[in-house]
Amino acid sequence: MEIPNILFQKKQRADLAARSGTEIAASEHAATHSTATAAQRRIFTGLSATSSTTATFTGTRSELEKITFFSTLLFTVMLSNIKVYVRCRARNEREVAENAGVVVSVPSREQIAVCSGAHQRTYAFDRVFGAESDQESIFETVAEPMLAQILAGYNCTVFAYGQTGTGKTHTMVGNLGADHSRLPTDAGIIPRAVHKLFELLRSVPDYSVKVSFIELYNENIRDLLGDESRPLKIFDEAGKKSVLVHGIHEVYIRTAAEGLRLAAQGSERRKVASTRCNDLSSRSHAVFSITVHMRTQDSHKMGGEEFVKVGKLNLVDLGGSENISRSGATNQRAKEAGMINQSLLTLGRVINALVANSPHIPYRESKLTRLLQDSLGGRTCTSIIATLSPAKTSLEETLSTLEYAHTAKSIRNRPQVNEVVNKKTLISEYMDEIERLTRDLNAARTQNGVYLDEASYEQLCRESESRRIRVEELEARVGGQQDRFERARERIDALETQLEHEQAAKLELEAQRRRAEGRLAQAVAETRQLQDTLRAYRKTSADATALADQLHAHQGHRGRLERALDANQLRWQETRGHVTAFAQQLDGSLAGAAAATSGELGALWDAIRGDLAAVAAEMARLNSSSVGQLRARCVESRDEFGTRVGVLDGGVQRLLGAVERDVAAAFGLFLERLAADRELVTCLREELRQRDDQIVREQSELRKYVEETLAQRRLVLDQESAELVRLVRQTVEQQAGRQKAELAGVEEHVTGVLEALEQMHRDRPDVLAQVDSRLADDETCVAAQSGTLRQRLDGWHVAEWEKTLARFRDEFVAWDDVRLEQVDDVSRKLCENLGRLEACVGELETKFGSTVALRVRGLHELQARCSGVLRDLNAELEQSLAGCAGLEDESKMQETQISEAIARCGQLSSAVAAVNDDLATRLEKLEEALGGDKTPLKRSWNDDKENVLPARKERVLGVKDGNARSVM
Ligand SMILES: Nc1ncnc2c1ncn2[C@@H]1O[C@H](COP(=O)(O)OP(=O)(O)OP(=O)(O)O)[C@@H](O)[C@H]1O
């Protein structure tokens, strides 16, 4: 690592007090002091609430103020989504040559639309750059705001993602130009960032800038600024979530030109490698990092102490995301593409896991994601530029890139300002490091084998010893843990045993519960059976009611039939009246016609007679002179008369013919009507017969059903009552058995107690006798002793003897008192024991007596309840039987009603037959009586045929328009 020769160089100190605005001072304070209080940090959080990274700064403030302002705004961005930009280039030469169609359009600054066949998909991003966008506008939108964040002490990352040849390198690196002190027009983000950074740093008093440039190829990290041949290793930074690239060559730069020179050098190396390895650039990822250290000072709060804050910008040019199969890659190239796609796939998985808030983020699955770990879901401000081709030939990759970028939009980072380090501490750390390295260097120069100086070696030994002790401590802790584990295991075993007992108890309880449930289920089933029986009863009665309703309906129908027959009869009477009237009318007409004809004939004869008289008179007057003329006139008159008679005869003949035709037609119609009526009557008869059969069938079914139901009910009731009686008997017997057993137990106990008492009573005289015998023994002993004493005292002085005797007597009295007290004591204790025993017996009597009485009462109550239940059941049974009897009566009544109805039907049938016969007779009579004008009869018959008959037929048979309809 190069030693920064410009680190903390003593530039002329900017006049910090000149900074305007208390918030700027406050922001610097909070941003520069690691010891800043939580309250101070909260102040900045509050400030950020109204801030925005896109806020523009106008006015005449110095660059420093501008930086500080941005840093104030950006410092407290606590949770921000990754910003995603899209850049779509114009068609390249190849695509133009192929005449590839354009499928991408940019409808607005935040939207991009892709036409895939007939469909168009639109995606929204933070900003979309079309083909017309230049490098500068992209830098200003994407990277420039990040520089302000870096100066505020944040880490920022911009990475370009997209298909090969869509302009990732163009966007990130672009043209670096030959003269590195000036920016070419098509310079990319890296050179522009370096230039802009140095512009901004002009107003920072002390700072240092270092850059690194690495390449990730086939999961190997290569240093593009250092020794390329030595692959670099990644380590997790102790105590942090970020990673360290061990041995990376970081070059301190003083000017932008130096930065550009290094960028160009790295890019050149990458290009050379690319040429060597056949288009490597599209198969490797490159990371250009700029790290800025800035000295800050708080003259107000920290006594002028100096601190160093750090900001870092990572500019990543990812490898191409093209499809392997489509690129036609094989062998080495396929492996490379696989690696590229592997790391990009892992990047995709990391993005998806972050978006889904997954507990595990697979950062460690590729070096790329390890390097970008802090930039994805970490403390870094991150932007992604997705690059696209507009050509139709790249449609699939374009859609894939857009989906990828769209998902990444949802990742949320928590940008945090880097830890601010006290300058002195930092310098001393650096000095220690330099010293250590120098020592190692010297040791390496002077010694063979181990390239360490003694202090380092001792340090190493100390560390090793410390580690050994640590290992021992850990082993001891493991031993302790194992003991605890054993104890825990024993406890678990004990608990398991207890658990087994409890489970057995639980199983027993379960079995009891199941038995109880079984009993309950049996009771429920019995109740259900009873309910079923009740339901069957209800159904029977409902069926009976329905049958009664049906019978009523039959009766109603019968009534309708009767009414129809009555109406028919009436109609026949009417018809007969019509026929009679017609006959009379016909008679009158014929009589009138005969009278008219005879009148005409009379008039004719009169006219003839007048003519003959006139002829005779004429003859007389002419005296037979003109007999010939007269004869001629006579012949003429005779012919004329004959003609007139012929005409008259023809009229009469025509009249008679018409009357005959009319009568024949009327008669035909009448016969038709008669046939129809006969058919109707036949139908009615058939229907009556069917209904009668149905009624008989239903009646027999009903009787059978009622009988079966009754039989079943009787059977069920018999079974139930038998079961109930059995159950009650069993319960009573069980109860009685239990009570008996209990009573026997109580009796036994009481007997035992009484026996013990009696034994004590019996033993009492013995005990007293024993006491008495002991007293007697004592007295005997005393007497013997006194005899012995008397004998001994014979030789003694009487006075002494008497004294001794008196003393002895006193002693004896005292001893006797003690003995008596002892006897009293024993006797008192015996009495007490006796009293206690009697009390105990009394207690037992009270207790068990009440229990027994309770049990007996319970038994009586149970018996009473059972009797009540039996009574209720008997009553219910009787009620049910009464109900059955009622049903039987009802069914008998219905039978009677049905028989009556059948009888009425028979009567009706005979009445109909009679009416039929009557009609036939009348018809015959009518046939005989028919003659004269028959037109009224025909009209009446036609009216009947068209109106009355169909209505009547419909009423009677339920037939309309030829469609059969059930009357039931
Ligand atoms: N927006 C653009 N304007 C002008 N030229 C562009 C643009 N984008 C890309 N190009 C040109 O297209 C070619 C390929 O671009 P570039 O090498 O940047 O693609 P890439 O995505 O980095 O490809 P790879 O993944 O293979 O590295 C270059 O010649 C570049 O100059």
UniProtKB/TrEMBL annotation:
Major subcellular location class: cytoplasm
Alphabetized SMART domains for the sequence: KISc (SM00129)
Cellular location(s): Cytoplasm, Cytoskeleton
Ranges of residues in domain Kinesin motor: 81-411
Coiled coil, from the record: 420-540
CDD domains in alphabetical order: KISc_BimC_Eg5
Residues annotated to bind ATP: G162, Q163, T164, G165, T166, G167, K168, T169
Alphabetized UniProt keyword annotations: ATP-binding, Coiled coil, Cytoplasm, Cytoskeleton, Motor protein, Nucleotide-binding
Family: Belongs to the TRAFAC class myosin-kinesin ATPase superfamily. Kinesin family.
Protein name: Kinesin motor domain-containing protein
Organism encoding this protein: Pichia angusta (Yeast)
